[in-house]
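Supplementary Methods, section 5.1.

A reviewer requested that the exact input to the structure prediction be made available. We therefore reproduce it here, unchanged from the version used in the analyses.
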Amino acid sequence: MKKLILGIILIMSLVGCKGKNKEGKETVNISEQINIGITQIVEHPSLDLIRSGVEDALKNSKYKDKIVFNYQNAQGDFITAQTIAAQFNESSDIIVAITTPSAQAALNKVHEKPLFFTAVTNPVIAGLKGENITGVSDMSPVREQVKLIKELLPKTKTIGTIYTTSEANSTYLTEEFSKVAEKEGYKVIARGITNVTEIASAMDSLLGEVDALYTTKDNNIASAYSLIIDRANKADLPVIGATKDFTKAGALASSGISEYQVGYQTGEMVIRYLNGEKIENMPIEYLNKSEITINEKQMNKYGILPNKEQLKNMEIIK
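The structure derived from this sequence is encoded cell-by-cell as follows.
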C-alpha cells in the first residue's frame, strides 16, 4: 500500500501544475513545472520570430526556471493542427497557438485550459472567443502600406496581390488593403490561390498587368517568397511587403508591425495569467506602431532615392 501511495504522489508531482479555482476552472500551480505547448501551423521566418518573442518573454520572467516548452509544427495541415491541440490538451498547462488556423484548431480541442493566440489578424471574424482564450492580433497597417507605395512608387496605377482563399487572415487583409488602395485611386488585381503550387501561375498572370506587387501576411506566400521575388525581379516588378522579413527576403520595402513584438507581448499576457490575472479580464491586444524597412539592393535596382525625411523613419536592409 505504501508503494502504491508513493507511486501516486510521484505521478502527481510529475503532472504537477493543475488545480481548480473557485469557479471550477483549471489553474496552474506555479510552484511546480509549467508545461507550455506551442502550436504553429507552418515554419517560416515571420512565425518563427513570433515564437521567439513568446519564448523570450517567458525566459525573462520569474518563472523561467519552471517553464518547459513543447513546440509542434503542423506542416500546413489543419487536421494535424487539431491532433497537436488534442495532445496539448492532455500534456500542457498552457497552450499558445501561432496563426489563425492553429488557434481555430486549438479552440476546437481545448475548452478549459488557458489558450493564448498570436499572429491572428482578426480574432472576431476567426471566431476566437471564449472564457479560456485571448491573445494578441497582428493586424497589418494597410493604410501605411498604401502610403508607402504612393511615396516610393509614384507612377504606380495598378497593384497586384496574391492571397490564400482558405486563410481568414489573408482574405481579410487583402480586402482591407484593396478598399484603402482603391479609395486612393489605384486599381487592385487580386489572385486567389489554394496552395503553394499555384503561386507561380498566379504570378505569371499578373506580370504585364500590374505596376507593383503587394504581398500580404499569408502563410503560403511567406513559404514561397523566394519564388515570388525571383519572378518579380526578372520582370522588373517592385514588391511592397507587409513585414520586415519580406524586405529581408528581397521585397523593395515594407511597412508592418514587429512580428517579434507580437510574440513578446503574447508572452507577457501569459505571465500576467501566471501572476493570477483571469483570462476573461484580459481583452485582445493590438500593436499600433509600425516599422518601415527598405532593401538597399532593390532601392538601387529601381533608382529610388528616399528623401531625408523619409529616411528618418526607415531602416535600410543591406
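Residues 1-18 have pLDDT under 50 and may be disordered. These observations are discussed further in the main text.
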